Structures
1.
Amino acid sequence: MDRLNTLLDHNRAFVESREYEQYKTDKFPGKGLAVLACMDARLVELLPKAMGLKNGDAKLIKNAGALITHPWGSVMRSLIVAVYELRADEICVVAHRDCGMRAIDPKHILDHAVERGIPEETIATLRNAGIDLDNWLKGFDNVSDSVRHSVQTIRNHPLMPKDIPVHGLVIHPSTGRLEVIINGYGEESHTAA
């Protein structure tokens, strides 16, 4: 059986047994929190449990590396919407140790794209159009520095209110231990990465 049908079979049983009732909430984060986290599969259940969050407590935004690569991209838009429309009054950026985005090699990714059938001409066309694929696909060298960068991008965004605390954390993907890199209430930790 393919994955989609397996998911749909589970969904039918989930809905028929009314399991959804235990997750009912509204669209507003009960704890007033927006969280930008890495999409790492190890964090799907670990991150909310390690932070004491249940369904409805926070707006959870996930991407590769918990990175904000552009101040006008979809991550910043989501955070702005969370603050102005969805009553988030605090933001946490949560990256993690042993992240796949650490020291990622853009050339390696593009080589895989070619292996999977993307024509080299397509990559050349994108580069000729001024798209900096190497920078776009680049990860980070130091997770703490990456968190600091994302926090600063949020704090310095011209549409982000200055009274919103923005915290920077690193979670251990096995234990769930949270390390504070930036305390959004005004204190910065100086822990090594």
2.
Amino acid sequence: MSLIFAAVAAVALDAAFGESKGWHPLVAFGRMAERIEQRCNAGGGGWRSHGVSAWCLAVLPLTLLAGALAQVPIFGWAVEVFALYAALGLRSLGEHAQPVARALRLGDLQLARERVGYMVSRNTAELDATGVARAGTESVLENGSDAVFAALFWFLVAGAPGVVLYRLSNTLDAMWGYRNPRFERFGWAAAKIDDGLNYLPARLVALSYALLGKTALALRCWRQQAPQWDSPNAGPVMAAGAGALGVSLGGAAEYHGEWHQRPQLGQGPPAQARDIERALNLVYGGVLLWLALLLLWGLYRA
């Protein structure tokens, strides 16, 4: 029950305060990871073995430290709560997504493009209103899995060291996991480890989205469309999420100057401004569902 109550406390802290506007541990970690990459991948010539060594150097000492601190009597429970609170991005997700939906409703397409650009890596400068709504909805569904549910999952599996291991690995994937000349070999380990850590959480998230929306359609989209998506974890999450909402996602998108024709996800009309908020509600509802089930399980076991 201790971990369950810690999870509830961390979610409550995130809802009340969100991410720190000043110093954040992940920002400090990112700076450290940059220095490690510059040493281990100088000139972009690092091999896979260098990427593995760099990943271990960046992640394992902090994971072991979190595990040790979590064992300290009384103080350890606060460490557990803080570790999950620092890893969660639930309130932040809403703070990024809601201004996009609001700008679209007000007809301010330029502002909507600017705000959705904070959420996605694709080029947003030429997106029409439908393209902005699609990008925002996709980002909410995918980041809900990566920044919220997966953190909760690994916290419940292994406490503070579990969530620290996951969140740092996910951060390194975002920094090193690119398929370009600099990171294709060096970032291989970061990308594969993140894929492995997200495999089971992503499928639980897809099931959660399906249960909270158009269940039959979501399950069918997951089964038929997810295998066509490049990412083994984003595919199930976004296909099930799009089906649960009854909208169409995917399609052409420009990344770093190159156009990619992505498979369609979901079924129904193209996403609109309100679908960004509906996607947020799927994430919020999923968190409440997970916490309710965990509390019931804890009470049953007590």
3.
Amino acid sequence: MSGSYYVPATSKWPVLGSLAIGVMMVGIGMVLVYDRGSLIMVAGLVAVVAVMALWFRDVVRESRSGLYDSQMDRSFRWGMGWFIFSEVMFFAAFFGALFYIRTFAIPWLGGEGEKGISALLWPEFTAHWPLLNPPDPSVSGPAQVFSPWHLPLVNTLILISSSITLTVAHEALRAGYRRTCRNWLAGTVLLGLCFIVIQGVEYYEAYAHYGITLDAGIYGATFFILTGFHGLHVIVGTIILAVMLVRIIRDHFTREEHFGFEASCWYWHFVDVVWIGLFLFVYVF
């Protein structure tokens, strides 16, 4: 393949993937607006997962067949880089919304700032974050909020540890120690599963004992939007790392050629950094 550029064959996966995402988003919209359409949402999600699995299967087969060269490697790297950048912007929007609410909207409703006249809407409202008593009396705020030094701190330590174990696995692969890479990568997958389980326990506690729900005012909404999307990324990242573990066991990677594994490391480290931001600005401050 030296001096050549591999042009993939015509693929049906981009079109099918777009249709699957469209069906899933229609279902999500119906659930949020009309409280029905869950079957459409689930069908779309299953279709998305199926398309991703089959599409990545083809990519793995092409890579294993020796069809990719250095130009394709650069293309994959640029593609993954832009994908992570889009994810950064995705979470930046939600962090920006949280910043706007806490820094501007709530103080305005409390009578502070250049738009403090907004306090005329609910004159008895006291601006304070976390917002346990929303200004509109028809909305019930949470009974209490989580202490950052219990489950959130445990999950923070888990994710930081997972970044360390994943880095050790990556360095072991680069040094040619495949068994060491396999063991440390398995540990990373296990830590990811532990994070997901603990997050599930926290969500149960939020609904059952803390009164933190999607209907609990702006605090409940921002809490679940930020932690929920991050949790989804952890689930996806754990699945990706599990697939990489299978590929390591099957000896798919070499010391020099292992971008699939390297890309999964980029993604996981990004997810870890986002969690640190969540821990600080959702739980601590």
